[in-house]
Protein: TrkA N-terminal domain protein
Organism: Thomasclavelia ramosa DSM 1402
Amino acid sequence: MKSVLVIGLGRFGRHLSRKFIEEGNAVLAIEKDETRADWAVNIVNEIQIGDATNEDFIKSLGVNNFDICVVAVGDNFQTALEITVLLKDFGAEYIIARASRDVHRKLLLRNGADHVVYAEREIAEKIAIKYGAKNVFDYLELTPDIAIYEIKIPESWLNKTIIEKAVRTRYHVSILATKKNGRIFPLPPTNHVFAADETLIVMGTAKSIKEITR
């Protein structure tokens, strides 16, 4: 179980708090607006009303005792930046912040955030790849360069084995699983024969995936 401090109980903060709790973590939520705090009483067990841009208030929370501190006030960049800097100054171990613009993401990372959630861009990229890319059914970014894709099996691979196609060395992707009739079969053996009624879950670069699915 991890201890999590969530600052801001807008939609993002409430959803995040609920998920952290569902995963068995202890959450303390901070909200300046009492009305928003009231909306979240059925989600978060422990809520404090306070101004997280106030240095004395942040100090009183003992932020260095939390495993994760989340700045969930991305609608107001100046506030998010001030809170991030204060958390860092008082020894927060790991800070996650939310941004609505790329320039905000860069500034938050330079001023104490360890990870920045850029929800709008991440959702837009996922939708564009999932629905716009040829023969790609789903997508999960791991880093800016590497992602996991669910793809249609190329016709030239059908009735061939993984080792026959030399997938990793020739195409520079790793096959994580096959999917058939809604069921996932992890780590198929090298003698697995590709079939038309299954899809592949692979990890690789966008360039490698385009080469396979074109």
User: Anything to note?
Assistant: Residues 123-213 form a domain with the Alpha-Beta Plaits fold (CATH 3.30.70.1450).
